[in-house]
Amino acid sequence: MRTPKQPRKIKGEASWYPFWYGGSYCYDFYVEGQRYRQSTNVCDKASIKIAEGIAKAVHDAAWARALSDAPTLKDAAELYLAEFGVHESELEKIVDYFGPHIKIDEIDDFLRKQCAVDVGNSDVQPQTRRRQIKTPLLAVIRNAQGLRTEPQVDNARERYLTPDEMERLIHKAKNPPPSVRDPDRRLLKMIAFLLGSGATPGEMFCVMARDVNRTTGEIWIRGEHVGAGKTKYRQRMVRLPDRAWQLIGDLPSKGRVFLSTTGREIVPDGKRGSTSIRQFRKLCDAAGLVSDKENNEPVVFYTLRHTWATAFASQVSSEHALIQRGGWKDGRMPARYRKRIPEDLGDQLRTHGWEFKP
Fold this sequence. Notes:
Layout: E1 19-21, E2 24-31, E3 34-42, H1 48-67, H2 73-84, H3 88-98, H4 109-119, H5 126-144, H6 163-174, H7 186-197, H8 201-205, E4 212-213, E5 218-221, E6 236-239, H9 242-248, H10 275-286, H11 301-315, H12 319-326, H13 332-337, H14 345-351
Antiparallel strand pairs: 1-2, 2-3, 4-5, 5-6
Helix pairs in contact: 2-3, 2-5, 4-5, 6-7, 7-9, 7-11, 11-14
């Protein structure tokens, strides 16, 4: 980096100390590589003290800016445009007005008003000036400070399995292709449990042998295990249809009952993935459950929870039962999981042996 040229100054004085040049006192100094060179507009040689105060104030403000953690308005505007992509033309004028070095914590209410007056056209209405100057400028500053409300995108899943798709997946789970490593048909047990209970994948992997009651057809869902949901309303008893129990078959008599396709216990700690997830994806591909123009969402384990909510609601009219069985706190989440239900969905499910009860 080239060494900055030494500014004119009175020998022995601070770098900011004013000097007489061209009919006024001026200052010329560098702070962190940025040059500050300008007249103080003090044109009376006898008023050196006034010029000193002005030059020192500029010097102190320059160092305060250099040491501030706040981003520059230019950087904040670039971030805002990258995130939201709006007000590009307005922000270009605003950044040009303030320059590339001013930081957002230096722009107070007075400077914002002054910018609106200087940048905005004089013949526009006040509300137009506010929309074109004040609003974009304040939005950039608030966004950089973390004060702007983050937009919420609703990514609710829309995909669920029809009865025919359920049976295609079950058929492939019974007869996995060579590409799926599942010699003991453990994916079949998982699929049947998730379709029959509405539990989450994490809750499924936390089920212990002592939680299973085949006599009543019930399974206790633990709320305290990692991955099973820690809120109290998640602890609940679920009742599986007979069809689900028939597909599940035998379960281990101790420890966790839903194991990986290689026979290992799965600890859903949120940090490690599971080989079962990869095998499940291969199984879905083999069953033809792939993304297409009509269904552009991939089928995942959570799709089976959406499928259960829709199937259960088609045969059980009780909203309370749906909320309680699904482990939700209120009716807001079931509304996201329960899809549009065809009038004959309940009958289609019964044709395949699925009978849900409250």
